[in-house]
Amino acid sequence: MIPDNKHVTEVCPAVNSVLSRIGDKWSVMIVMDLAAGPRRFNEIKRDVAGISQRMLTLTLRGLERDGLVSRRVYDTVPPKVEYSLTGLGRSLQEPVIALGEWAITNKDQIYAAREEFDQRMGEAAP
Questions:
Q1: Cα(119)–Cα(49) distance, integer angstroms
Q2: How far apart are CA 98 and CA 101, in angstroms?
Q3: For residue range 37-93, what is the model confidence (pLDDT) as tens digits?
Q4: Would residue 51 count as lying in a domain?
Q5: Residues 6+ positions from 16 with CB-CB distance below 8 Å
Q6: CA distance 72 to 38
Q7: Which of 18, 82, 111, 115 is deepest in the core (most CB within 10 A)?
Q8: The domain that contains 31 carries what CATH number?
């Protein structure tokens, strides 16, 4: 993106809005979990280590609002609720997998850069 391009300024808020949803760690982990197929709430909670019930609820609601996840309620007692990726959600898998692979490939360089930076900053401190 070129800074003096008027189009960039016009689309920044839209891009920011979308990236804030798909860029948080819980959304990415839930999308990847649902890539294997529909899941019930407690299955997702078990699969996504460390997520609280409240955060899972909020994240699923946000993903549903953005059209990435669908929620299906079955008429049973007790009601059965399943979550699955929509077509839009499935289209997100490829870039998320690519980003994950990039992170795995480059993690050693990133860790080394962090360590070097932290050492430099530690030496620069009065």
A1: 32
A2: 5
A3: 999 999 999 999 999 999 999 999 999 999 999 999 999 998 899 999 999 999 998
A4: yes
A5: none
A6: 10
A7: 82
A8: 1.10.10.10
106 found inside a domain: yes
Strand order in the sheet with 69-74: 39-40, 80-85, 69-74
Write the single-letter amino acid at 14.
A
Question: How many residues comprise the chain?
Answer: 126
Work out the burial of residue 86: count CB atoms within 10 Å of its CB; fewer than 13 is exposed, 13-18 middle, 19 or more buried: middle
Q: What is the pLDDT of residues 3-18, one digit of tens each?
A: 556 666 677 877 777 7
What type of residue sits at position 45?
A: K
CA distance 61 to 36: 19
